[in-house]
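Our working data are protein records whose layout never changes between entries. Instead of coordinates, the fold is spelled out as a row of discrete tokens. Here is such a record, shown just as it appears in the course material:
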Amino acid sequence: GIALICTAVAAPATGGRLGKTMLLRLLLSASLIVAADIHLVLTPQHFDESPLLGGGFLAAGLCQLVLAAYVVTREDDRPIGFLIAITISLIAIYLYAVVIGLPLDSEHSNGAAGLRLGSGEPVTLTGLTNVLVEIAAIPLALIAYAKRSRPLPAS
């Protein structure tokens, strides 16, 4: 609910229908807000485990919030490469944490409930939701900011 409200507030007011590009950017923003919310809600728990892990969650959440606001308030595509790189990095870190385990983990994953896919932390509904909205952000960003073919200048 919060993600949709924030996206609606951040979206520019238009007199007519939303264009396809703006709709894609709103969906991208919503997915980033959901991922940011999950990271920020889990930050205190991860700070208890490790200051580095908590700092990583805080940085990820804040970065995703800034990018979510940027994609609905700016037309240019300058941060899209950064957005995709950060998102892929966060997905890779999560997969590593699930399959192998992070060295910063202070044994919280040993008693945690969830689906075990490796020797790392279990996959929980929160973790699955987070990684799915991050995965969704990648094609949304690529489609929303695809280079439109421009006519070649006449010679």
